[in-house]
Specification:
- There is one protein chain.
- This protein has 455 residues and is mainly alpha-helical.
- The chain has one domain (15-441).
- It has 16 helices and two strands.
- It has a two-stranded antiparallel ribbon.
- It is globular, with a radius of gyration of 23 Å.
Amino acid sequence: MQRPHATLPPSATHPAVGWIGAGSMLAAITVLNFWPPVHQIAYLALIVIGCSTLGVFIPDLLWQKVQRRTLLPAPRAGHWPRVLTKCLGLALSVGFIGLLYWLSPEYHGSFYDDYYAALEVLLPAWAALAVPYIHWVDRRLAEPEDALWQLGRWGLGQWRGLDARLLGQHLLGWLVKGYFLPLMFTYFCQNLDQLLHYDLKLLHSFLGLYDWAYFTLYFVDVSLVSMTYLMSLKATDTHIRSTEPSMLGWIAALVCYQPFWSLISRQYIDYDSGTGWEHWLGSVPWMRDLWGALILVLVGVYVWATLAFGARFSNLTHRGIITSGPYRFTKHPAYLAKNLSWWLISMPFMLEGDLLDALRRSLLLGLLGTIYYLRAKTEERHLALDPVYGQYADWIAAHGLLRGLDRIPLIGALARWRPRFEAYRPPVPFSQPAPARAARADTRSAPGGRTRSRQ
């Protein structure tokens, strides 16, 4: 039950920041259209990501001053033993992901060639900047003995006093980045290459415009997401506060992405008959165009939800509570818009063979919606560890666009359900400002439509 005087808490980032980042990204792509041909698309992708990063972080740091939430106003004296221990912790974190890549056959194929080409550029630069960056941040943290320091101590054999759950959360966060970054960056490179060579002559019809708009919207999404997984930094307040602690949450998220989605969709959730909306409505052009426009609106809402995160989007992690953009109207606008768009795209309720076949395909698409329902509920449970999210959920319950649905018996029960698990709770609320933390320190995812990207 919501509190009677719930107020909407401020968002972790201003809604305009993501739009500025998207604008910077599109401007970079416009320039690249006149760029001399480059053999390796990964290098162009890094240029675009760099422009997106500047477009997001300049307003975030200079306008919103988000660094004040994480960093102390005045630096303390440097502590080189702790800094070097953290550098060892960083090396062990990278080594942990590298070991998983080496062990898994998934990462030995050619699919991730663009990702590895980018790492050849990023890793040397990262290694050169790591020590001065860690030293600079360490002097400004209210609690500098963080998970990176603890992992470094573990590597040195100094195991007394280590927090196993904090270390576990740290490794889970790196596992999220290690899994999603290569996937999103590879999609980004493929889509960037396609966008740079897109045949604009195809835009002469509505279906041509639809295909281009659909592809471009998802391109904006995957390009910004690639940047957000890469730029997880305490200096910009975009670091991971906590990672999804339940197996249910991980399974519900991972089955929506490759390589798991190919197996799951082909064997268990193959709801798409191959006959889409443009076939069913082709004989009524105005209805076909209206239907396609509605699909694009839903995809636009989905991308709008990504933009609202700025540089803080990430599956399975908490990097700041977002309360602006479409999140002002409902807690899960991206999931709602995406699932509704799939119903309009595939139209599984249309009769192509018989009634039972239409029912079967509708139930399969409903099963996919159930997976997203589990994703939503496990995310709510995880984020509820932050009191800011509790305040946000109370406000949505009182003012949200779908607030009346909880009075319907079955829907209300589903909305109120929470999966049970024991989650890691940080010693200080995530949303508490840095000075307050310092004061307490002494007390210690596709089916797309006509083009497919990610689920």
